[in-house]
Structures are given as structure tokens and as C-alpha cells.
Amino acid sequence: MTRELPQSILFCCDHNAVRSPMAEGLMKKFYGTDVYVQSVGVKNDMEIDGFTVAVCKELGVELERHRARSFDQMEEWGDDLSSFDLIVALSPASQRRALELTRYFHLDVEYWPILDPTGLGETREAKLAQFRAAREQIIERLKDNFGEPIGEET
Fold first, then answer.
1. How many CB atoms lie within 10 A of CB 150?
2. What are the pLDDT digits (tens) for 50-93?
3. In the beta sheet, which residues pair with residue 38?
4. What gap in Å lies between CA 51 and CA 111, rounded to an integer?
5. Is residue 22 within 8 Å of 96, Cβ to Cβ?
6. Contact of 39 with 10, CB cutoff 8 Å
7. What gap in Å lies between CA 40 and CA 44, rounded to an integer?
């Protein structure tokens, strides 16, 4: 069941290095600039994962310049969580943190259980397959929630 696009959406995961930047990039590509999209992690102790960059590039989503940031940094930089219409947590830890930070706001926090592909697969191809699986899960969730992409088709 699809719903109207939110005006602003925040994707979050553990490190803002794999799932949440993937979701941010795909959301921007599929639904354009009508939606303000950001991503954040519980921590920002990692750079964006090279496999994430690679599997998103396959669909024309550019993530090389993504810089990981944490919830704390986001607040330091003046991005107020209450300004988002929807927060989508892609990991249990980020769901807990988002709920903790939004308990005083009337804000929708949804949990989309997306596979964490890090550490899975032995070979480069096997690792890429895991990252593609996570990407496809995100794409399915986006389409299920917001309908077919209005940007370029993949």
C-alpha cells in the first residue's frame, strides 16, 4: 500500500556507511528533489563502504562524496530531528536511538529490517551479492511505501 511522499525523510543505521546512505541515494534518485532526504548513523566511526558505492553506482546513484555523520553531529550542525516528517531506521540500534531522541515529538519512526551485508561473503563477487541484496531490500521497501519511482527508471 503506497502512501504520499513525505516532505522530509531521515534514514538511519549503525554507522551511516552502508544501509542509510544507500537508502538516501536511492530515495533521491527515485523520488527527486521534492523530498528532503538525509541519512545518519548511531555512530560515524567509518567511511562509506566501497561495496555500497559500487552497487549504487550500478544504478546511477553517486555516493563517493558521502560523509558519514552521527545523530550527535546532526544535532550539533543544527539539523533538528523534529523537522523530519518520517524517520526510517534500518537497524535495531538506530531504531532505539531514533525513538530515544524523538520521544518528545509527534514523529513517525518506522523500522525497516534491512540485511547488514558487512562481513558476509568470502570473495569480492560474494560480498557484492550481499550488498546488492541489501540494496534490493531497500528498493522494495521504497516502492512498497512510496510507489514506483518518479525519477529515472532503473
1. 12
2. 999 999 999 999 999 988 999 999 888 887 888 899 999 999 99
3. 10
4. 23
5. no
6. yes
7. 8
Closest CA to 61 of 25, 85, 96, 94: 25
Q: What does the block give as the cell for 65?
A: 562524496
**Cα dihedral sign for 47, 51, 56, 60?**
positive
DSSP state of 150: S
pLDDT tens digits, one per residue of 15-64: 999 999 999 999 999 998 889 999 999 998 878 899 999 999 999 999 99
* Residues in Cβ contact with 7 at an 8 Å cutoff, skipping those fewer than 6 apart: 35, 36, 85
Residue 58: count other Cβ atoms within 10 Å of its Cβ: 12
